[in-house]
Design goal:
This is Lipoprotein. The chain is of the alpha+beta class and 251 residues long. Helices cover 35% and strands 31% of the residues.
Length: 251
């Protein structure tokens, strides 16, 4: 299947159905780790698989398991990128190491999409995630990140992470000006309807046992080195600061 056809299909999945997005962070002893966001759009495959199959043609009958990096995408779009401002090009550069994996199985009614990258320090993630909005300036690039550019890069806040071995924080600071502008946008109501039954799940894994978490809804793994917190996706989009919390680790 051609890359752009697959990306268009991914965009369709992201905009027509409720889905579950899971944000994963794995932190190693030395502070390095892996970040990923998993989208499960299987519900649309179950509800409208036949119609989507007609749109996709013969490709819909194939089991798909494909991976590409944004670096590959940017290489294909290098002429378009060259026309962007130096600032926009710099933002896109931060996304080069992100990998997108897509799995589709028509028989099992399964559609999964994962955006992932390795990091040397969780602080790096702040700049990279905010750079997702730069994909909107690249023709065809927005589809490559859907639903990621429609969620991670578009909830009117600046997200940051910190980790020093003693504490971990996740903090979103709301941009009140953007929030006010969005309130006047009729498309915001449509977005709210689309994601009304969607969930945003956080799963974080650490090398140390967790002493306490500021969010009372967090559940722990048996070894207390991992937490899971589930939110309505509307909270993520409309009240991103509700997802702020702090973790303290045992000595």
């Amino acid at each position: 299947m051609k890359l752009y056809k697959l990306l268009s299909f991914s965009f369709l999945i992201a905009t027509l159905t409720s889905c579950t997005l899971t944000e994963n962070i794995y932190v190693n002893d030395n502070g390095t780790g892996k970040f990923s966001v998993d989208m499960d759009g299987s519900s649309l495959m179950a509800m409208a698989g036949d119609q989507l199959g007609d749109q996709m043609g013969a490709d819909a009958k194939k089991n798909i398991d494909t991976t590409f990096t944004f670096k590959q995408l940017f290489e294909e779009k290098k002429d378009s990128i060259a026309k962007l401002s130096p600032e926009a090009q710099k933002e896109l550069k931060k996304l080069e190491n992100f990998v997108v994996n897509t799995k589709m199985n028509a028989e099992k009614k399964e559609f999964l999409m994962t955006l992932s990258t390795d990091f040397k320090n969780v602080n790096e993630l702040q700049d990279a995630l905010q750079s997702m909005s730069a994909l909107q300036k690249l023709e065809g690039g927005a589809n490559a990140a859907a639903p990621f550019s429609k969620g991670l890069g578009d909830n009117n806040s600046k997200l940051s992470y910190t980790y020093d071995g003693k504490k971990f924080t996740r903090k979103a600071v709301i941009d009140k000006q953007k929030l006010a502008e969005k309130a006047k946008d009729s498309a915001a109501d449509m977005s709210k309807m689309i994601f009304a039954s969607s969930n945003y799940i956080i799963k974080y894994h650490f090398p140390k046992r967790i002493k306490k978490v500021s969010n009372p809804n967090a559940t722990f793994s048996e070894d207390r080195k991992s937490i899971t917190i589930q939110y309505p996706f509307t909270d993520y989009m409309e009240n991103p600061d509700k997802l702020n919390f702090e973790i303290e680790f045992e000595k």
